[in-house]
UniProtKB/TrEMBL annotation:
Residues 47-130 form the Core-binding (CB) domain. One of its GO terms (biological process) is DNA recombination. Keywords: DNA recombination, DNA-binding. This is Tyr recombinase domain-containing protein. One of its GO terms (molecular function) is DNA binding. Residues 153-234 form the Tyr recombinase domain. InterPro entries: CB (IPR044068), DNA_brk_join_enz (IPR011010), Integrase-like_cat_sf (IPR013762), Integrase_catalytic (IPR002104). The keyword Repeat does not apply.
C-alpha cells in the first residue's frame, strides 16, 4: 500500500475517533483530544439519544459495506438531527418530526444537498430504529427525499461514493484529494470551487464550511467528509 494511502487511512481513523469524542465525550479523556487535535464542541445530546446513537454506530459498523468516511458522515448528520430535534428519538411524535424537518429545510447555513442528506439520514435512521431495517415507519414515511440537481445524467452514469473514494485514494497529492472530495460533496461547479480562496474555508473541529459564489450568489456549504482532506492540504 503506498505511503499516501496509508496516511489517508490513518487520517480517516483519527477523524472518525474525533467525531466519536464529540458524541461520547465521557469516553474520551482530555489527553486523547490533545494528542489527536481539536475535536470541536461536544454535541448537545440527551442521555437517551446518545445511547441510541451508540447502538446505531454499532449497527453501521456491523452491517458492512460502509466506508469509514461514510460512517463518520452519517454519525455527524444524526448527531446534528438529534440536536435539532431537542427531544428523545424514542418519544418523538409526528409533530416533533415535522418541526424538525422544517428546521432542516430552513437552516441558514445548509445548501440543498446538505438539507437532503439530513432528511435522508433521518428516514434511514428511523427505518433502523422503528422499522427493524425493513420498512419506513409512519413517523417518517411522509418525508420526501428528492435530490435536486441540474444534471441530466442518468443514475448509472454518475459516480458512486465508493468509486469517488477510490479516485481520492489514487490521487498523488493532498490538493488533488481535497479538490476531488470537495467537488463531489458540494456538487459545486468547477468554476465555483476554482474561484474560492483559502480564506473562504472555515474549520470547526471535524467539520468545515466553504463560501462559494455561484449563479445564485454567495452561499455557505457545510463540509463533512472533505474536512480531513482540506486539513491535510491547507
Amino acid at each position: 500500500m503506498p505511503h499516501e494511502t496509508i496516511k489517508s487511512f490513518h487520517n480517516y481513523e483519527r477523524q472518525y475517533a474525533l467525531v466519536l469524542s464529540r458524541i461520547f465525550p465521557e469516553k474520551y479523556p482530555r489527553d486523547f483530544t490533545q494528542k489527536h487535535g481539536r475535536q470541536g464542541r461536544p454535541f448537545n445530546l440527551t442521555p437517551s439519544n446518545r445511547a441510541v446513537i451508540e447502538k446505531y454506530r454499532t449497527h453501521l459498523e456491523n452491517e458492512g459495506g460502509s466506508s469509514l468516511a461514510r460512517r463518520k458522515r452519517i454519525l455527524i448528520l444524526i448527531a446534528n438531527i438529534a440536536e435539532l430535534l431537542g427531544t428523545d428519538f424514542e418519544t418523538a411524535t409526528r409533530e416533533d418530526i415535522e418541526k424538525l424537518v422544517s428546521k432542516i429545510m430552513n437552516h441558514p447555513n445548509w445548501n440543498e444537498t446538505t438539507k437532503a442528506m439530513h432528511k435522508q439520514t433521518l428516514k434511514s435512521f428511523y427505518r433502523w430504529f422503528k422499522g427493524n431495517s425493513d420498512f419506513f415507519p409512519e413517523i417518517v414515511r411522509w418525508i420526501k427525499c428528492i435530490k435536486r440537481s441540474g444534471s441530466n445524467k442518468l443514475p448509472e452514469e454518475m459516480l458512486s461514493e465508493e468509486e469517488v473514494q477510490k479516485i481520492i485514494e489514487a490521487a498523488d497529492h493532498p490538493m488533488k484529494r481535497a479538490l476531488i472530495s470537495t467537488l463531489w460533496e458540494t456538487g459545486a461547479r468547477i468554476g465555483e470551487l476554482g474561484s474560492a480562496n483559502i480564506r473562504n474555508i472555515q474549520f470547526d473541529g471535524t467539520e468545515a464550511t466553504i463560501m462559494l459564489n455561484g449563479k445564485t450568489g454567495m452561499r455557505q456549504v457545510l463540509l463533512l467528509s472533505s474536512t480531513p482532506f482540506l486539513r491535510d492540504w491547507i
